[in-house]
Specification:
This protein has 127 residues and is an all-beta fold. It has no helices and eleven strands. 0% of the residues lie in helices and 50% in strands.
Length: 127
Amino acid sequence: QVQLVESGGGLVQAGGSLRLSCAASGRTFSTSSLDNMGWFRLAPGKEREFVAAISRSGGSTYYADSVKGRFTISRDNAKNAMYLQMNVLNPEDTAVYYCAAGTSTFRVSSPRVYDYWGKGTQVTVSS
């Protein structure tokens, strides 16, 4: 019983930055449901794509090759929040971004291992 809500999306020029937030609510206290959290994105005409994931302690992070060096994932468990700092954005980053949470600590790039999903936030990067 966890709800996830994304925020921070918007319109930005190529080369710019955005910071996405994901707030978790519901039964989040000491729950293993948030042991792993991640970000996915969905562009028109494409399948959902893994972006980044992070373990509960933040000690393990994972990134898609397309965003390595540009995006940084983080989390604040005291606030039940997760963040995605996106720098040097390009038009190929345009998509709806979704946050997700689950118990899995492996195969984190697969959407099938996540139990909870937000409704998404739109990120549009102009050329």
